[in-house]
Design a protein that fits this description.
Shape: elongated
Helix content: over 70%
Largest sheet: none
Order of helices and strands: HHHHHH
Distance between the termini: 41 Å
Radius of gyration: 20 Å
């Protein structure tokens, strides 16, 4: 019974669920930010250009969220700060979109903005937590041990 608990802990180290939740919240916040900004500020754009812009934003958004989170699993420290800054930027842009929408009466984007704000705050809370720093340190330790093992193998030849 104790061995099963150790296997689960090795498979999902402490902080894994917060990490996964933070990624999901980051994606929701980024999608909500892009969609709300396009709805409010993109009213004068042609539909062809708008479609290309949405596809471009999708690819850029995937890179902006998933590349740093992949680097966390390699033990890098910078992604935690990067994701925090990205989420703060999303929150700021959502607040600007909400204010612009209210002042210029451009339509009802409130629900999308509020979902994005809530997801952004929860994601920011996750990335700034001690649990994610422990998870990053866990992966850092694993990669350091792997590098030492490879160095020993290389030197033994």
């Amino acid at each position: 019974m104790a061995a099963d608990g150790q296997r689960v802990r090795a498979l999902l180290p402490p902080g894994s669920f917060r990490f996964i939740g933070s990624i999901i919240c980051s994606v929701i916040a980024l999608v909500s930010t892009c969609a709300s900004a396009i709805l409010v500020f993109g009213q004068g754009l042609s539909s062809d250009f708008l479609a290309k812009l949405i596809v471009l934003m999708l690819f850029v958004g995937v890179f902006l969220v998933f590349h740093p989170n992949f680097r966390i699993t390699r033990g890098a420290k910078w992604p935690l700060v990067y994701m925090s800054v990205l989420l703060l930027s999303c929150i700021s842009l959502l607040l600007i979109v909400l204010a612009w929408s209210y002042l210029h009466d451009t339509g009802n984007v409130g629900v999308g903005v509020f979902v994005g704000l809530i997801a952004g705050v929860i994601g920011l809370w996750g990335y700034r937590s001690r649990a994610l720093e422990k998870l990053r340190a866990h992966f850092d330790q694993i990669w350091k041990e792997e590098c030492r093992r490879r160095e020993i193998l290389r030197n033994s030849r």
